[in-house]
């Protein structure tokens, strides 16, 4: 008899730990869905800031806490790099910024007239909170016509996009700041590129 809950993890009888945590709903956005989300971010009241926020979360696999902790001095626009300070004992790294990221950053910073250290500020000029980011992403996802989207999905989307592009597991591990390669394997294990040419 087939499993009546094919997209849910198996659970031990009387327990809560999944036997096969690999069997779960898709918890990331495809590149096409990310394009829709980023476009919808631009249409909001603070479109430039929100677009930059989502772009950096996606491109650098940022957790919410890592995003709101970003400071302006973590950026080196001259060399095109960002210092990513990982949480959960993760590996901090200096990562390159793509051209569209640099343009988005300059657009946001060009209208800043404050002396605040943090990169992302609220309407009141205070650092964004986790709750604010959660709310903004949910609202942007609705405008994009997507289902429920939570911030950590953007980090997963980064890992899956890199894996589907055929990037090496160790490279993705270092990029996302994972100390345990098992956390990275979830992306490479499901990558479509692994199965390309299987029937050739």
TrEMBL record:
<dbReference type="Pfam" id="PF00589">
    <property type="entry name" value="Phage_integrase"/>
</dbReference>
<feature type="region of interest" description="Disordered">
    <location>
        <begin position="1"/>
        <end position="23"/>
    </location>
</feature>
<comment type="similarity">
    <text>Belongs to the 'phage' integrase family.</text>
</comment>
<dbReference type="GO" id="GO:0015074">
    <property type="term" value="P:DNA integration"/>
</dbReference>
<keyword id="KW-0804">Transcription</keyword>
<keyword id="KW-1029">Fimbrium biogenesis</keyword>
<feature type="domain" description="Tyr recombinase">
    <location>
        <begin position="24"/>
        <end position="200"/>
    </location>
</feature>
<protein>
    <submittedName>
        <fullName>Type 1 fimbriae regulatory protein FimB/type 1 fimbriae regulatory protein FimE</fullName>
    </submittedName>
</protein>
<dbReference type="InterPro" id="IPR002104">
    <property type="entry name" value="Integrase_catalytic"/>
</dbReference>
<dbReference type="InterPro" id="IPR011010">
    <property type="entry name" value="DNA_brk_join_enz"/>
</dbReference>
<dbReference type="GO" id="GO:0003677">
    <property type="term" value="F:DNA binding"/>
</dbReference>
<dbReference type="GO" id="GO:0006310">
    <property type="term" value="P:DNA recombination"/>
</dbReference>
<keyword id="KW-0229">DNA integration</keyword>
<dbReference type="InterPro" id="IPR013762">
    <property type="entry name" value="Integrase-like_cat_sf"/>
</dbReference>
<keyword id="KW-0233">DNA recombination</keyword>
<dbReference type="InterPro" id="IPR050090">
    <property type="entry name" value="Tyrosine_recombinase_XerCD"/>
</dbReference>
<keyword id="KW-0805">Transcription regulation</keyword>
């Amino acid at each position: 008899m087939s499993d009546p809950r094919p997209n849910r993890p198996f659970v031990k009888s009387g327990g809560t730990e999944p036997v096969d945590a690999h069997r779960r709903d898709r918890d990331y956005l495809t590149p096409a869905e990310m394009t829709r989300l980023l476009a919808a971010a631009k249409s909001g009241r603070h479109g430039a800031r929100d677009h930059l926020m989502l772009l950096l979360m996606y491109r650098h696999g940022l957790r919410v806490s890592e995003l709101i902790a970003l400071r302006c001095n973590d950026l080196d626009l001259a060399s095109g790099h960002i210092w990513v300070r990982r949480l959960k004992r993760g590996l901090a790294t200096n990562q390159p910024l793509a051209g569209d990221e640099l343009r988005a950053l300059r657009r946001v910073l060009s209208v800043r007239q404050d002396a605040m250290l943090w990169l992302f500020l609220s309407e009141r000029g205070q650092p964004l909170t986790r709750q604010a980011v959660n709310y903004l992403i949910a609202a942007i996802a609705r405008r994009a016509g997507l289902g429920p989207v939570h911030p950590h999905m953007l980090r997963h989307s980064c890992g899956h996009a890199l894996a589907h592009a055929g990037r090496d597991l160790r490279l993705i591990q270092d990029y996302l700041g994972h100390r345990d390669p098992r956390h990275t394997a979830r992306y490479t294990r499901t990558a479509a590129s692994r199965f390309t040419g299987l029937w050739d």
